[in-house]
Write a structure and sequence with these properties.
The protein has 96 residues and is of the alpha+beta class. It contains 2 helices and 5 strands. Helix content is 25%, strand content 39%. The chain has a 5-stranded mixed beta sheet with strand order 1-2-3-4-5.
């Protein structure tokens, strides 16, 4: 599996792919002045659902935020649910 971070302006898309196809993607928006990354949406294509691929995308997005010393607000309900189950994000996760 391979992650690609396609940055554009104040946001981007982290894509997870295998050798044949895109597995899924996580879209995000960054507010550097606020040191904040918002996870907008996590999508896993139907043929790859139920295998934890969405969690991998959330973890990759959190890792990207950590690299840049940003906090993460999971606007996407799926991302929020995943982050609530993660043990190592208390220091980085923003709540409303």
């Amino acid at each position: 599996m391979k992650y690609t971070n396609n940055k554009s302006g104040n946001g981007g898309v982290i894509t997870l792919s295998n050798d044949e196809a895109e597995i899924g993607r996580a879209t995000y928006t960054v507010f550097p002045s606020e040191q904040k990354l918002i996870i907008s949406f996590v999508l896993v294509h139907p043929q790859f659902e139920g295998r934890g691929m969405g969690k991998y995308l959330v973890e990759a997005t959190v890792a990207y935020a950590r690299e840049n010393n940003w906090k993460v607000y999971p606007h996407c309900s799926y991302a929020r649910a995943v982050m609530n189950r993660m043990n190592d994000v208390e220091d980085i996760m923003l709540h409303r």
